[in-house]
Design goal:
It comes from Sporothrix bragantina. With 374 residues, the chain is an alpha/beta fold. It has two domains: 120 residues, NAD(P)-binding Rossmann-like Domain (Rossmann fold), CATH 3.40.50.720; 208 residues, Dihydrodipicolinate Reductase, domain 2, CATH 3.30.360.10. Helix content is 32%, strand content 22%. Helix 9 crosses helix 12.
Amino acid sequence: MPAPIKTAILGTGIALNHLHWPLLSSLPDMFDVTTVMERKMAGVAKALCGDKIKVVATLDEVINSDVELIVVATSDGSHFEIIKKIFNAGKQHVFSEKPLTYHSAQSEELEALAKAKGKLLGVFQCRRWDGDYLTVKKLVDENRLGALTSYEVFYDFYRPADVAVEGAAPPQGVVHWKDDPAQNAGSIYAVGTHTIDQIYCLFGVPDKILGRTWGVRGSGVQDCFDASFMYPPRPSTDIPFFVRATTNLISPVDPQLKFVVKATKGAYVKYYEDDQWFALDRGEVLADTYGTEVKEHWGTATLVQADGSFKNEVIPTERGDYRQVYREMAEAVWANDPSKNSVQVSSVIQVTKMIEQALKSAKEDRWMIKGKDY
């Protein structure tokens, strides 16, 4: 195995302490995190990552160091300019938090720039390795439920304020970027980049797109969304296939609904979010149970029997593993071969285009039609 990749992480927010640091540090044969950029130099990086980490305040210091890979985990709207600057320097590969950018044209520019500079661009679409999504994918691939007629994925929370999740409120008079509509493009990007990405991976580009966004927390940010996608009838049926992704951040429901999949021979219903985020927070990334789900949280398939009756069957949740997105990135860097990444930037761009059409639909109050609008 080649030497571990010298890596820097930009940002000290929730993405660092809940995701990138525990995941990267769990793969020491692949990654050596040497540097963290902490603009405010408030001691967050040292407290989390230890004294061996070099902490710098500027992007230039990172670019001018000997790191080979830069993980961009800054605020969502900052990704484009930061990644563009890194690639123009021509020294490092980049691994970006999602959303890569808020605009497909910007993502296309970054994809082309990476190729021109001979560098790799990866995107943290970790929820392609959610156990519940992998379970749904297996049910679909194996045709356990018959021809699909509808698919709904929910990503709801009861979260009156994002700053509570970040761990500390900003100074008085300072608006947290997640509560600033000038910086935060809403939940359709923050959350839809996962759920709509899963939809794209399963079903591709839809024939029609209908979107709706709204805010419930008073900040001006469109913190809720509902996006519907219409696909041609599935094989062996003439029923139009409707897919829905939705998020509401004021959802006082326990447990939260996650998937409802209906088909001609059965259905699947799943509650509870994938546990990996919480396992990382508990420091369990190296535990034997990481990526597994307790039986009490497994989903249920209702299967139509030969006599027309229903039979409920509890479906074990597949094991997930967010580390796989990083393992693939390491293999891609070592081989200097972007095909090693199953998360291709081209697919990320397609998902962004679906989001853009959903937002245009919300603005114009109509279905967006393939071949006409996109």
